[in-house]
Amino acid sequence: METALTFVLVGHCDADSHALLQLVRQLAPAAAIVSVDDEVALGECLKQPCVLLVNRVLDGDFEAESGIELIARLAQDPGGAPPMVLISNFAEAQDAAVAAGAQRGFGKSQLNSPATKSLLQALAVPTT
Length: 128
What we know:
single chain, alpha/beta, five-stranded parallel sheet, 5 strands
């Protein structure tokens, strides 16, 4: 039996969460979508198959000072980290996130680009 995948919107403000939610809902209608703004909620999400869409500047109560720092910490988990992408328009931030253990993400200005849509659709297919 295949487990449902959850997209976790990590550290986004309400407006950005709404835009990401609408996009993911359109591209991966079978996926659950959860917004988290603290470490406790994130920890609960990590107990299930998920994809993390991490904001560069975390909005909420996180131990990490940035999304890149959070990605680096999660990537060190000996049990393995879920797929993670950084949401940032800055190329240098994307490079740093990839070096920390994320897949190359996208910026808010690229939400409706074909590349972003392809990435999200590919992430919506759970790995076994």
